[in-house]
Design brief:
The protein is of the alpha+beta class. The chain folds into two domains: 150 residues, Gyrase A, domain 2, CATH 3.30.1360; 107 residues, Elongation Factor Tu (Ef-tu), domain 3.
């Protein structure tokens, strides 16, 4: 089933407010990458083109293993001082910073974990982009989908004051993300196993196909041009008790995927492409895939 969010019967729940609100994202953190070689340094590591990055202009990208498997996702934006800020998963930020430092070698690059002094927020709802620019913070339109609004990297404890908007719960933003079917780091992508093209990175602007080599580029390109994808992350509706992450999704008693992140009656699930038509179950719940308009699946898949 292809989900048209604009006409979906629950569309009011996707964006119920009359003006934008913000949610703090405590599970996200920030790493600063500075120095004269910062752009060239990251260019050889991540899946997107650092040449697109500027003040208020961000990319979404991934760091991969040499075999093209997922390690970390990140937004990359430039702050007012010209330093690249990488917004990434908080629980894995320190390890990522250590890994980046290991790769610097003789490059004129500095890497600093800024999680203690910067907080991450998302502004979403009608005309969310009108909050830009945000004085005293680094803010940018989410490069994946306009419906996801604006990301804000602000000094700890200051996002609410700088934005001057009503605050919504993290659950409100999570509901929006799940309905749009957008993955959230290692909650949805299995570390050292997931492929970018299984996970929406192509359609969500997380890969640049014209840039030069980066770690894992060869397998990523081969996967695209040979059409090797046999499964995808899908947003799903859950009828019944929300299954725990990792719960197998079955059709006629045969496993065809598994549940990843979820909340309420929505979740992300990794499914075989031929499972999209259902009927599917996970534990005691009925699972209904709802393919979003942004997702592209080849007709011969």
């Amino acid at each position: 089933m292809r989900l048209n969010l604009a006409n979906h019967p629950n569309a009011a729940q996707v964006s119920p407010m009359s003006r934008p609100v913000f949610s703090l994202l405590p599970h996200r953190s920030v790493i600063a990458v500075g120095g004269p070689d910062r752009a060239e340094f990251l260019q050889g590591l991540i899946s997107n083109d650092t040449g697109k990055v500027g003040p208020g202009r961000a990319i979404w990208a991934a760091l991969l293993t040499p075999q093209g498997r997922f390690l970390n996702d990140m937004f990359v934006v430039e702050d007012a001082a010209g330093t690249f800020l990488l917004e990434t998963e908080r629980e894995r930020a320190a390890a990522l910073a250590r890994k980046l430092k290991m790769y610097t070698l003789r490059s004129k690059v500095t890497v600093e974990d800024r999680g203690a002094d910067l907080e991450v927020a998302a502004v979403f709802g009608p005309d969310a982009a009108k909050v830009l620019p945000v004085a005293g913070a680094t803010a940018f339109v989410d490069p994946r989908l306009p419906e996801l609004g604006v990301r804000v990297l602000a000094p700890v404890g200051q996002a609410a004051t700088l934005l001057g908007l009503g605050e919504a719960s993290f659950a409100a933003y999570e509901s929006l993300r799940l309905r749009l079917g957008v993955p959230d780091g290692s909650r949805d992508l299995t570390v050292e196993k997931a492929l970018l093209l299984e996970s929406g990175f192509d359609e969500l602007h997380g890969v640049d196909w014209q840039k030069g080599c980066y770690m894992g580029q060869e397998l990523t390109a081969r996967t695209k041009y040979r059409g090797l994808i046999k499964r995808r992350l899908f947003p799903v509706k859950v009828e019944g008790t929300l299954p725990a992450p990792g719960t197998p999704v079955e059709r006629d008693g045969r496993a065809v995927g598994e549940i990843r992140s979820g909340a309420g009656d929505r979740a992300i699930a990794m499914l075989q492409l031929d499972a999209e038509q259902g009927p599917l179950v996970a534990a005691t719940a009925k699972i209904i895939p709802e393919r979003p308009d942004w997702m592209e699946i080849p007709q011969n898949s």
